[in-house]
Amino acid sequence: MIFLPGQAGPGFGWGSLSSSYLYKTDIMSPIQVAAFSGGKDSTAMVLRMAEQGHEPLCIYTPTGDELPAVSIHIQRMESMLSRPIKRIGLPGGLRRLIREKHMLPNWRARFCTPMLKIAPFQAWLSNHRPAIVLVGLRADEEGRAGVEYSWPDVEVRYPLREWKWDLEQVLSYLATKEIEIPPRTNCARCFFQTLHEWYCLWRDHPDIYADAVEDERLLGHTYRSPQRDTHPAELSKLRDEFETGYIPTERSRSVACRYCST
């Protein structure tokens, strides 16, 4: 069941949120901060809160390697929320980080997420306390651990879980808003992505694909594991296959970067 504007809905008791904070007079009240990725869950969370009159500061940590559709989506969100979304990122983004570390992100060295997504947010948060951090974890993600901070003046809440919203409810709510989440909200050159996603990158954004080929040439490593399938691991050789007319079958990912897609 989706609770539309004007309905109370479960879990909207924000007036009682951390009363130990809200009624302190000797220190500043905590700010509400929404961890926003541009994915379906965080998008639904901040829009629903806005309907209820709550305006948390939305923090977005770009990697600098997002596809154009992501920027368009975020700009539309800013228009719907009637306020800016704060962007906090490492200057130069993923491309600079790859060249400075002289390595590509991979299964064993997934430095992209902690250095580009987590660290910038934590650094900002450490200077903006007390705070209430709002994270878009759903009620049907019981097995997924939440976020913990060592600071005593930072509280983490999960509005979607408090509202008991599962995936179906999130998607239904977004449909009522006529919002279509970009197919890819993570990096354009992610080692998680499928063969079909590499094909779409080559087809739709050849400049980004060519830059990823250059990454591999400079570093002598590949984004794709040679053991992943029977197709070439090197993007340059994979491009040769695409140019012959080969179109991979579209498949769902078995895993994905949740920090980039929530």
List the topology elements:
Elements: H1 19-22, E1 31-35, H2 40-51, E2 57-60, H3 68-81, E3 86-87, H4 93-101, H5 112-126, E4 131-134, E5 154-157, H6 159-162, H7 167-176, H8 195-204, H9 206-219, H10 235-243, H11 258-261
Parallel strand pairs: 1-2, 1-4, 2-3, 4-5
List keywords for this structure.
disordered N terminus; 262 residues; single chain; Rossmann fold; 2 domains; alpha/beta; 5 strands; five-stranded parallel beta sheet; 40% helix; globular
CATH topology of the largest domain: Rossmann fold
What would the principal axes of the Cα set say about the shape?
globular
Helix count equals 11
How far apart are the first and last residues' alpha carbons, in Å? 21 Å
CATH superfamily of the largest domain, by name, is HUPs
Biggest sheet features: 5 strands, parallel
Q: Taking Cα atoms only, what radius of gyration do you get, to the nearest Å?
A: 20 Å
The spatial strand order of the largest sheet comes to 3-2-1-4-5
Overall number of structural domains: 2
Query: What is the CATH level 1 assignment of the largest domain?
Result: Alpha Beta
